[in-house]
Amino acid sequence: MIDDLERAIEAMLFASDEPLDARQVAGRLGDEMTPGEVRAIILRIAERHDESGIELVERGGHWHFQTPADLAHLLRRERDDPRKLSRAAAEVLAIVAYHEPVSRAEIEAIRGVQTSKGTLDVLMEAEWIAPAGRREVPGRPLIYKTTDMFLQHFGLASRKDLPGIDDLRAAGLLDPVDLAFEVAMGELDLVKDGEES
Predict the structure, then answer these.
(1) Could you give the dihedral angle defined by the CA atoms of residues 75, 15, 65 and 2, in that order, rounded to the nearest 10 degrees?
(2) Whole-number Å distance between alpha carbons of 107 and 96
(3) Which of 7, 145, 167, 178 has the most other CB atoms within 10 Å of its CB?
(4) Domains in the chain: how many in total?
(5) What span, in angstroms and rounded, lies between the C-alpha atoms of 121 and 47?
(6) What's the pLDDT at 196?
């Protein structure tokens, strides 16, 4: 049987405009519960909604309800996606995600080209990256990190869920020039092996 406290926490998570963490929920309940006790109840709620029409998921320590991925196609409408990223913005976002915290100079060193301030502004407006302080080196450059909104938008529980090199290769997302080079090098090795025998 579901008690009133569990129902209240479920209602808070459902009605909230943004994902909440256990500390925020505990704060809304007053001094009644610790964040640890709230988290235990949230886990029960998530388990109860497992395999239902909605699911309670954790993204970066924050909880929210969403449609399960296998049902999303039923709710999708034809519309223009307002967040079409340029290639430069996608590259910068990937660099920040995989190397955070990272400065603009470090981003430029990895990309091999200058990065305009506008590219970083677009990603900050989307709330996918945010300043993470300053690097303790001469000039104290600003460094950037991804946000909880980034995790939520891309359906990641944490940065550990980012795809690895093998996942990217399997999805066909690596540069065709790199793949052609690997194939050519592999074929060259095969020819050398054949000549030696």
Answers:
(1) -120
(2) 8
(3) 145
(4) 3
(5) 39
(6) 45
